[in-house]
């Protein structure tokens, strides 16, 4: 029986079987999953013309680029006119390796210079290539369009003090690579039974996170000089994403801002940075806050943007518990102004809703007239104030702010302070009345005033039905961490990528 004589549904089944992840296949340590699969698909694409059309589409859909591949990638895609097949480009930059003579110290000046050259050449070369790609209306109409993802790490980062990176180093935004179980027993780097036995030394962390000012471009690098030190305009990228996969900080002024300005049709910005490390020499968290302050200013002037997600992660191994309450006031206030033209905003950990709604808190005589969110449909914000003492003040201010969000569909606030998780949701559904809900581990209840204010908001959205009020109970909690709470959020899939959510889920004990 020939291939062509098979019924179309059977042909499709064969194609899909070849595309399925090989979850039961024996792991090949030398070939990560995301590298092995394209190789198989390339072979499939060579079988016949029909197979070529089908598998090429899959082959080119999502590409992972090492910096050494960038130029060749540009030539191949342009020469074979395959740019219209690409939906996701992950520029996965690898810095040089290092050994134990350097794993406990920050990068030297020479290493820093080398890293900046590698980073600059890779990003500028790729954006140079993308600037020449023709626009494609079909891709632009898709929700995500073409996504550019960026990451930087050294392959050695998994081998020394930050060995927790090893389980996620080969994850992609579309699949999790499950390495064989590994129990970290490493006296030199103080790991025992899969956990570090002491707080990791700051200098060892700086090696992996980099200086809190972040990795930046060096305009003396050849690729920057080729473009006369101004990044070319790229019109084909609609989404820009940085996942929590690696710890490396990026400079805003000298890396992220120029990239964002270059992507002049950017609609989605999804950013999952790591909190800065405080050391004797500098306050890493404050430095990162200053960087993010600049970032929000840059995003405010980006007229094309409709979606921002910002999740500043922290890790009990590397940060301290009391850091949950340390959101920066100015950062929240700036984000409130940045977000006024957005349709979706999700911000967590580094930003507190209490600061975001500053103009609506009791005591403020009248919010400024321009504090309105005319297009906002989905909003979720982290706060440390959904507590017995602080929740009523916040929920009343939030209700006043919600009144100047005429299109809002989901409005979610959440707290993850140790032992006291609490989630508030205002939601509109197609069927049923508007609803407010409060889920907590400590019996949180709305005040009469809060219910009244939210009922006024609900009336503006749906004058037919009465506001429904619901309460939920998490039961005894006892997990001093933000990670389990995230899994209960209605907006979790907008706040974090699916892979990041799964990575967090894997950290929950039991
Ligand atoms: Zn080492």
From TrEMBL:
The major lineage groups are: Eukaryota, Fungi, Dikarya, Ascomycota, Pezizomycotina
The lineage's top-level taxon is Eukaryota
| Every DUF6546 domain range | 303-496
Q: Organism source for this protein?
A: Clonostachys byssicola
Protein name per the record? DUF6546 domain-containing protein
């Amino acid at each position: 029986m020939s291939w062509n004589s098979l019924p179309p549904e059977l042909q499709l089944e064969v194609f899909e079987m070849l595309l399925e992840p090989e979850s039961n296949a024996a792991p090949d340590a030398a070939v990560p999953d995301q590298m092995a699969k394209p190789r198989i698909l390339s072979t499939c694409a060579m079988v016949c013309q029909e197979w070529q059309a089908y598998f090429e589409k899959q082959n080119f859909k999502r590409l992972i680029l090492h910096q050494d591949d960038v130029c060749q990638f540009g030539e191949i895609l342009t020469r074979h006119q395959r740019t219209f097949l690409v939906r996701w480009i992950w520029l996965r930059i690898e810095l040089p390796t290092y050994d134990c003579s350097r794993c406990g110290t920050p990068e030297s000046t020479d290493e820093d210079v080398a890293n900046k050259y590698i980073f600059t050449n890779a990003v500028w070369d790729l954006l140079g290539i993308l600037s020449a790609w023709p626009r494609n209306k079909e891709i632009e109409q898709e929700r995500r369009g073409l996504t550019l993802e960026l990451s930087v790490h050294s392959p050695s980062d998994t081998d020394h003090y930050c060995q927790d990176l090893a389980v996620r180093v080969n994850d992609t935004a579309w699949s999790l690579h499950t390495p064989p179980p590994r129990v970290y027993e490493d006296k030199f780097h103080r790991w025992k039974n899969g956990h570090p036995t002491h707080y990791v030394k700051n200098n060892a962390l700086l090696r992996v996170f980099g200086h809190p000012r972040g990795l930046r471009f060096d305009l003396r690098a050849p690729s920057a000089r080729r473009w006369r030190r101004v990044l070319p305009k790229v019109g084909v990228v609609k989404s820009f994403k940085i996942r929590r996969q690696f710890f490396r900080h990026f400079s805003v002024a000298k890396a992220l801002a120029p990239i964002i300005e270059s992507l002049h049709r950017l609609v989605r910005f999804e950013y999952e940075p790591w909190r800065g490390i405080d050391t004797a020499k500098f306050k890493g968290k404050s430095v990162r806050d200053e960087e993010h302050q600049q970032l929000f200013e840059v995003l405010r002037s980006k007229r094309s943007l409709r979606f921002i997600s910002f999740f500043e992660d922290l890790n009990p191994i590397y940060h301290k518990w009391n850091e949950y309450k340390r959101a920066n006031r100015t950062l929240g206030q700036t984000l409130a102004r940045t977000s006024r033209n957005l349709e979706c905003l999700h911000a967590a950990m580094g930003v507190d809703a209490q600061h975001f709604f500053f103009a609506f808190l009791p005591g403020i005589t009248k919010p400024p007239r321009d504090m309105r969110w005319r297009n906002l449909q989905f909003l979720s914000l982290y706060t440390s104030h959904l507590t017995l003492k602080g929740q009523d003040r916040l929920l009343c201010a939030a209700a006043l702010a919600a009144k100047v969000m005429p299109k809002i569909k989901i409005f979610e606030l959440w707290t993850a302070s140790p032992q006291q998780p609490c989630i508030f949701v205002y939601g509109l559904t197609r069927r049923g009345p508007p609803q407010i809900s409060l889920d907590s581990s400590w019996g949180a209840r709305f005040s009469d005033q809060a219910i009244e204010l939210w009922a006024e908001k609900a009336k503006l959205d749906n004058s037919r039905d009465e506001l429904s009020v619901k309460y939920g109970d998490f039961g005894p909690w006892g997990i001093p961490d933000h990670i389990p709470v995230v899994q209960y959020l209605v907006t979790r899939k907008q706040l974090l990528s699916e892979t990041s959510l799964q990575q967090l889920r894997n950290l929950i004990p039991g």
